[in-house]
Amino acid sequence: MFDRIAGVYDVMNSVMTAGMHHRWRRRAADLAQAGPGDEVLDVATGTGDLAVELASRGANVVGSDFSEEMLARARAKDPEIEWEWANAQDLPYADGRFAAATVGFGARNFSDLPLGIAEMARVVRLGGKVVILEITTPQKPPLSTFFKVWFDHVVPGLGRLAGDSDAYTYLPNSVKRFPGPQGLAGVMAAAGLRDIRWILTAGGIIAIHVGTKA
Asked: Which domain holds residue 184?
């Protein structure tokens, strides 16, 4: 599915978020606290926007994904970044290698969320950051009503126009299955992360979590 939608992925992200997804990625990169010389892993990198943002701050970035078509588009954005095929739930990297590990809009696609987050924590050094940028479900109207209409009706309609209604029906379903901010913080704590906090933005539709490996 991700190979199929790689060609429209960036355009759809911009349409669905009114271009705001770049701002959210910048905030996620801020929380990673990675700078020149730091090695950072961006898991489920997709077409690489978060990895490119991290690299713009001087970090040495590895962007990994299991979709070759997504990686092909990421390589075209920045050939200097190390783009690698990898399974987020069985990362081929040594314990404690990275100063930070990030994932932007990919954690809800982990078939085993605790395992995926545990793998991110494993490859981060002590004191390093794990950052998760993800869509979350607002609980209070009117935003909760808008969110339901947007994700249950508008997004699948956009997917049909883009030629892949199945993929953009999967998107709202994956968001509904994903834990809320407190639940995700609990999964991060179980993976050995401490000092966990999160930022809600876009009226509560976007959550950015960060935890420190202890």
From this structure: 19-137+179-213
